[in-house]
Structures are given as structure tokens and as C-alpha cells.
Amino acid sequence: MPELPEVxxxxxxxxxxxxxxxxxxxxxxxxxxxxxxxxxxxxxxxGQTFQEFMRRGKYLLFVMDSxxxxxxxxxxxxxxxxxxxxxxPRHTHVIFALSDGxxxxxxxxxxxxxxxxxxxxxxxxxxxxLGPEPFADSFTxxxxxxxxxxxKTALKTLxxxxxxxxxxxxxxxxxxxxxxxxxxxxxxQRITHRDAEAxxxxxxxxxxxxxxxxxxxxxxxxxxxxxxGLFQLSVMVHGKKACGRCGxxxxxxxxxxxxxxxxxxCQK
DNA sequence: ACACTGACCTGCGAGC
DNA sequence: TGCTCGCAGGTCAGTG
Length: 268
Hints:
The chain is an alpha+beta fold. The protein folds into two domains: 4-123, N-terminal domain of MutM-like DNA repair proteins; 141-262, Orthogonal Bundle (Helicase, Ruva Protein, domain 3), CATH 1.10.8.50. The chain is 26% helix and 20% strand. It contains six helices and ten strands, in the order αβαβββββββααααββ. It has helices spanning 4-18, 38-45, 141-150, 155-160, 170-180, 193-212, and strands at 23-28, 52-56, 59-63, 68-72, 78-82, 92-98, 103-107, 114-118, 251-255, 258-262. The longest helix is centred in the C-terminal third of the chain and has 20 residues, at 193-212. The model is unreliable at 218-228 (pLDDT under 50). The protein binds a DNA duplex through residues 1-3, 32, 58, 72-76, 91, 108-114, 128, 151-153, 157, 160, 162, 169-170, 256-259.
């Protein structure tokens, strides 16, 4: 379940590994992974060099010479770099043969991830109608308060809305609300200025700590790539039986179609 | 216009 | 042991 910290970790890992390398060949093994025309995708990428590595929300953006390769990992997507002659792992859907002889494989057991090629003139601000980045200046308490007051949904649903804030997924939404002492099912309408301030501060604190620790999910990265995802040790409520703060039992209920974990003692 | 639901997929674990 | 079933969740299209 790659969320912002996992995507950021993937990006930094890949940047250190493949920046400046050229794509010599592209092989698509599962057509639906690539949006649009497969032939065109291949033609646009062959001969292009990885120049810059960017992220917007949960989207990876690989800036090449004359195009941008956009990739979304959805739930299980990951990249693996194979040394020359190594066999691609199971569920490999796209292979990029690189100029140093290695293969960059896109691996996705659930086939949910998507990628496409676009021009370099992309508008990052309005990219996929995403809201502000959590670390952007525009993500303020007054923004959170005003957006919450517009809606009739639960706070959890607000945090998961990529148009409100980009990059938060199910795990971090639960963790942020736990840190704020707010129940995921609490109505957006009941938000206070103090709550909004807590959401901004805890969102930034939790995401930056997760990035520092290399993300949460172990599935996304394999140990041989040197990235293990230590943030899973810092999880307080999501998927837990006992609250990491007070030790009382964690409750689970579905909010907006997603499993939501919270501590009824710590969260009001 | 907003809010909710189901589809997309496969692996895994629970229960029989 | 081996089967079925439900769940996992990011995004978007479709529905109310």
C-alpha cells in the first residue's frame, strides 16, 4: 500500500540507482498497465534518459529528455532492478532495458498500477486534480478548517480525498487521526480550529518521520534493495489490537468503504 | 454538486 | 488437507 512516504522512498532509491541511464528497450507484458497506445508508449521512451525524479501525491514522475513517464503504484506496485541476465520476478508487467545492462522491472501482483507517457509541459499544481502537498505552504490550518466545513463526510474520508490533500492513504489517515485524538468517523462539520491545527502538524510530523524511516509497507520494497520500511514499528493503531499510546483495545469499523482503526480511549 | 458504491485484480488467511 | 469466501485498498466511472 504505497502512500506518500513509500512513493518518496521508491523515488529516492531509483534516483540513486538509475539517474542518467538511458532506456534502450521497453517490453510490455501486461498491456493494461500502460494507459493509451502501447506502441506509442514504447516508441516515446526508447532512447530517452532519466533526467529528473519527482513526486506529486502518490504519483511518480520520471522526467526524461523530451517526455515524462508517470507511474502510479496503486496498492502493490513496485520497481525492481535486475542485474544483467537475472530473471524477472513473478508479476512483472513492464521491463525497461537500461543502458548499463540492467533491467528495471515494474512488478505488480494485483495489476492495479498504471503508467503513461506525457509531455514535459505538465501542470504540477493541477495534476490529476490533486490538492496541496502536505509540506506545501498552502496546507494550513485555515485551509483544513474551511474545507472540512464544506463537507458532510467523516474526517477520515476528508484525509483520504486526494483533492483535499495529496498523498495520504488508509494507514497514515488512521495514524494522523490517532495522533490528533480524533475518531475517524467524526463529522467534518464538528471540526475546531484547534483540530485543524493538530491535523496539519501531525500530518507533517508523521509523514516526515515515515519518510525518514523509509515508509511502512514491507511488500513495496525488498531487503535486497536495501529499503525495509521501518515506520511499521511506529504504527499506533492501524491494524493493531492494542493502542500504541494507552494499551487499550483498538476498534475497527468501516468508514467510506475502508477499514478504519482507532482507540476509543485516546480518540474522541 | 456532492456522496456513496462497485470494478479493477490477485494473494492470503479464516473457516468449514 | 483442500476448498470457498471475504478481505486488502487507490482511483475512477457510474449511480443516486
